[in-house]
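Researcher: Structure for this, please.
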Amino acid sequence: MHIFQGLLLPLFGIGLLIVAWRGWRAGALPVGPDIRQGPFGQYRPNRRDNFLAFHFFFLLYVVSGFWLLVFGLGVLFGKYAPLPLN
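Model: Predicted structure, token format:
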């Protein structure tokens, strides 16, 4: 199980970092479900209109991405115990 988690968690972390990087370059981050643009659509805070929400979610994505990357590599190399999954 530690090999599975050691490979999957860093991939999720890299994915979050890519989303954060693309959002930083575009000036808007995707937040919340898409549900094919249903009645509410998808919330996309941008730098110009919602400065605080954009930076909050950007920081959340970056910190979460780095944590998943470091923890997953730590599990893969035996530094941390894998998450207990039943």
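Researcher: Any notable elements?
Model: The two ends are 11 Å apart (CA to CA). The chain has one domain: 2-76.
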